[in-house]
């Protein structure tokens, strides 16, 4: 048993590349948030009023929250999140926590429809998705295969091109796959005056689009290098996965003057135990068996928004994608220069 625990600890250790990936993701997220605020400030007053009157994209989930709670949830809990606590924030994993399935696969389907790549590459995406369903674990070799596929596809394309396509693909393949129960949890943090961030190995531009369409603060995602707005086919650090997610949350919390003990984090995967362990309020959402056991042992709260049939199946882990918003790429270059 001690040997197994040692292996688990080694798997969760951060490396210099995961630290770099986390810092790049944090800088990209803050840059995107600043750009979004500037855009709102520049918009006509009537347009801003119209935006505030609209509900965020996604299902109206407030009435469905109680129906999605697992029988394992405690019957009574103290008031949370705490209204007005500006030193607290919430961090949500994306794939199978906020969204059903792997976002990079849905994005790939949309790109294929637009003849962005050929049938052979689509079949590779489909095989990877099937593997995630069957294996129920984020095998490093398969994650590396996904990463290599995605990098080869976007190399030479403009960041703005994928951002424009991403908006359309969200409407076509992603909007209907948001878990209403998880969406309600995120909204509760927003209503309490807290910031809410997605944290995902998916492309940062995809994650940013999803966060904005759901009315969230922003997203921490995998950052790909770009030069003059064109993808080079290289990552900044490594995919935002496992320990890298924890490093991103840590870096963002420091930059935003947050107290992690007052923050919350939500995920379905045992690979996110490093991130969940950072905060004072960890939640296991639609958990895989390893995370479910870990959560029970440590007294973490559980929520399962799947139907009985789906809950019995193995969840779909996050696929490691690549990408960057323009501001994120600039931030990543600045980070690399400071490290030299």
UniProtKB/TrEMBL annotation:
PANTHER family for the chain: PHOSPHOSERINE PHOSPHATASE, PHOSPHOSERINE PHOSPHATASE SERB1
Domain of life: Bacteria
SUPFAM superfamilies (UniProt xref): HAD-like
Keyword Repeat listed: no
Phylogenetic classification of the source organism: Bacteria, Bacillati, Actinomycetota, Actinomycetes, Kitasatosporales
UniProt-recorded Gene Ontology molecular function terms: hydrolase activity; metal ion binding
Disordered: annotated segments: 16-81
Protein name: HAD-IB family hydrolase
Compositional bias segments (type: Basic and acidic residues): 28-47
Organism of provenance: Streptomyces tardus
Family annotation (Pfam families): HAD
Keyword Glycoprotein listed: no
Swiss-Prot/TrEMBL keywords: Hydrolase, Magnesium, Membrane, Metal-binding, Transmembrane, Transmembrane helix
InterPro entries: HAD-like_SerB, HAD-like_sf, HAD_hydro_SerB1, HAD_sf
Transmembrane portions of the chain: 314-335
Assigned protein family: Belongs to the HAD-like hydrolase superfamily. SerB family.
